[in-house]
Design goal:
Number of helices of chain B: 13
Structural class of chain A: alpha/beta
Strand content of chain B: 15-25%
Order of helices and strands of chain B: HEHEHEHHEEEHEHEHEEEEHEEHEHEHEH
CATH topology of the largest domain in chain A: Pyruvate-ferredoxin Oxidoreductase, domain 3
Number of strands of chain B: 17
Structural class of chain B: alpha/beta
Largest interface: A-B, 92 and 68 residues
Helix content of chain A: 25-40%
CATH class of the largest domain in chain B: Alpha Beta
Oligomer: heterodimer
Bound molecules: thiamine diphosphate, magnesium ion
Shape of chain A: globular
CATH superfamily of the largest domain in chain A: Pyruvate-ferredoxin oxidoreductase, PFOR, domain III
CATH architecture of the largest domain in chain B: 3-Layer(aba) Sandwich
Largest sheet of chain B: 8 strands, mixed
Chain lengths: 676, 370
Amino acid sequence: MRNSFTFCMAGPQGSGIDTSMRIFSQIVGSLGNEIFSFREYHSNIKGRHSYLIAVIDENKVNHLRFSIDILACLEEDSLATHLFHDDISYDGVLIYNKASKNILIKNIRTMESCLRERIIEKYEKVEDLFEIARKKRVQFVEIDFLKITSHIAKNLNIPLREAMISFNIIALAASLKYLNFDFDSLVNILKQRFGKNEKVFRMNYLAAEETYKYIDENYKNLERRFYLKKVEKKEKRILIDGNAAVAIGKIIGGISFQSYYPITPATDESVFIEANQNLDCVIEKDELIKRIEKGELSNNILNYARLENGYYKIKRGIVVHQSEDEISAIGSAIGAALTGARAATSTSSPGFSLMTEFLGWAGKNEIPVVITHYQRAGPSTGMPTKTEQGDLLFSCFASHGTFPRIVLASGDIEEAFFDAIKIFNLAEKYQMPAIHLLDKIIANSMQTLPYFDLSKVKIERGKILNEEDLKKIEKFKRFVITNDGISPRAFFGTKGAIHPLTGDENDEKGFITEDSYTRSTIMNKRMKKIETLLKEVNEEDKLKIHFNKNAKIAIISFGSTKGVIIDCIKKMNLEEKVKFIQIRLLQPYPVKDVEKALENVEMLIDVEMNYNGQLNLLNRMNCLKTADVVIYKINGRPIFLEELSYYLKKAIEKDFSVFEKDELLGFYKAELKNGV
Amino acid sequence: MVYKKEDYIEDFNEGWCPGCGNFGIREACLRAFENLQLDPNKTVVVSGIGCSGKGALYYKVFVAHTLHGRTLPVAIGLKLANPELNVIVHSGDGDCYGIGVEHFVSTGRYNPDITLVVFDNSVYALTKGQASPTLKRGEKLKSLPAPNIKDAINPIGIALLSGYNYIAQGYAFNIEHLSNLIAGAIKHKGLSLVNVKQPCITYDDIHTKDFYQNALFYINNILILTKDLDKPIKVGIVKREFSNHKIGELVIIENEEQEKNCYVMEFKKANEAVILPKEKAEELLKKECARKIKEEDFYDEYIAFSIAKLMLNIPIIGKIYERKESKTYEERIAYNIESYFAYPPAKQIICDEEGNPTTDIRKILDSFIV
Ligand SMILES: Cc1ncc(C[n+]2csc(CCOP(=O)(O)OP(=O)(O)O)c2C)c(N)n1
Ligand SMILES: [Mg+2]
């Protein structure tokens, strides 16, 4: 019996498998296990096959796997799809709905036709596909979903259709029962979750009870291949997804204005912020009184403040503006940033495309606006709910002309939380638009993590002039030439700070000019900030070197591939032989630091999730160093542990014969693929 | 401190053509600022791209000369983050009703307390006189290679439908009148539009100063029909000189020649706004078929629509519509965020002097504990 396994629940979009998975993850996490789970869904509201997959272990998990140890399917589409793709493990377990067996593949209308046609070539009925699982000695646990729901319908006196809403709970209960999780604990959890709505609770309770009974009756001596272990964990832990982690990071980081136009997979972040927009903030009594006396704050604020031990607890609200499009989203964030608010907009690839003209305006006018960019699979609408890292070069170079910007990529959920704060600090200190580069994997995965260490959070706002500072200056020049390129900022609305901003080139005061001398000096001043930034930023915000710093083989990558790379190196025991260079700061590119990390490297392996190996190209452009091989994936799904270890092994052994053989994961010797 | 007009003026040359209508609009704005004693430190002019937009740098207030068509998004961000600011937008007719029209319409739904002044010269002036969205079909300006084959947009009608709640039209060279309209718009709580008719002296040889001098029609000369007429009245405004008629003149249409050379309107229904040559107006008034427009009529959407319809053809100037009670975007935000006005985004203290965050997120993060 194993307690480390992959679990997958699959069913139609909108069937509640999300809820079931949350409950499942909660249970697994609360027993002290670590979990990493991911949501795959379609750009469709209801019906299409979707699934959640989770890797469970005693130790921290950072990756997903291709092969599923326990697969629970609600209906025929998901059952046929997963069996056909052969992604169930040897000696795995299949929990399925009895009614699915006899369905003809040609009648599965929710399935995409190209997949259906591929299956029909070999199989007629869903049950025919079982031979694939049998060959792998898979254990079958058949559940009569209809019998259970009929019972519920009769008991609650509701139509069968309505009772069928509980399919997700049946699948959950069957899985938990298989794992020998005790019924009373499950009931407690269901009560917590659904207790507020008596009818829903009743239905789910019955679904769980009947499923447990069904298994007891039909599988008297059930052989259990997997179980849930209780692991002792001392530290406080959380189970959190990337969208929420980023939202909470922004909140503690002081965001007070967020704009967005709905787009997968970014929207949930903005919705989360809005749902939590009223916050307590704690300010020293004297500080607040001082500001009121100076007239910076109105006396009215005391109506929303409570004095506790020398501190005021005040309600602060975050304005969340759902705009008419992404152009307007970034435009309003820029407007808010001008007043001194920490302002951000959150989007995904097509939305970012729309923002590019304003990005240049913000760069030219040195405005610290934050763009949280969750990449998804392009080009164009692409695969809206699938993942990719295809916008690296676009994020680095989008918009016309030349201006400084920050592109910071987080490798996992925890980094994303702290980076959501850091990106504001960088944007404000260096006065430039800052792109927090993420992707669908980070957005939609959930992971157990230690409770975030909030004592590590620091806010830096850069050089800001207030009314008193401005009194000491004869004439405020917004873009005054300085040695480090950073001109102190003053907010719109601050007395004595009046100045214009324009998209045209400007002089030190901000006025339009085409004077050749002024243009050069102002442009140089703006660009100078790049040098200053690279000098000042911590090394670990530029790049992180994992494992043996002196290793001769290096893997280079960025963003969400971090987890699978780290777990893969560990699994293959390559900690001594290989180092992993995770680039975090992609604009401005930390050339010196990367060059140093690449010194004495004899083999460079690039891993990323886009067709042309964009990080490799960026690195080649900046450091004149090309990867020896590029391992890439473009089918919209995350890189799985098995795939990466296979290709990594081949690469390290210099066995390039596998080149281009695999249709799901690509691999090439960098010099073989010209002109991408 | 008392602000004088000069206090709002910066030493900046925007390079407009001598005699451009823009000068009049700017003068009117300056007078409105002075009149309302706006604090320059609390005032922002947001402008777009075009001759209209560039001139904003002349104001000695905060200025954001943004992108082509994108004034309103920036203005919304400024206003929502700091509701204390007076936010005045300067946009061109191409800027606002062409490339930026999605923002023009959508902002109406939000109703922020912002004043939008549109410099409406029927052309894309800065790019040398192409047809703008307010140029009528069939017109061939000297800058156009062929007559315009697209219909004109009706900005006043769209503003009404979109939720703007102070709507007026002015004329660039009626500075005192325009200045009052703009001051009214700034004072109005909610989203306001002042569309300003303006001759482009360089590219437009149809809507010239002379044209406007004849054709301008003050709102208080409008009549409202009090009952349905038996026979519709056809009225034209001369677009091409013919017989003894000058451009811009109003005539009752009786023959084909007149019809051909005029913009033609037909009136028939009670409660509709009508515009008539003097004698005909007097005749209707005497017969009690019509009455003069009254102040209260500016709160009547139906009448405002009928005026908007007329404005496609006739440069009517004056306040057309005002609705006072509508809640602003900021007020609606305050439904959800009680402390919003006392502690708006721009003023929040997010960290102490050592950079420690002030926001307490423990309650939120605790909900993720396993
Ligand atoms: C995205 C973009 N497209 C095109 C232009 C070129 N352009 C500059 S001004 C202008 C027209 C401005 O017309 P309008 O808004 O009516 O202003 P006016 O010059 O008439 O005052 C255009 C098309 C631009 N600056 N940006
Ligand atoms: Mg124009």
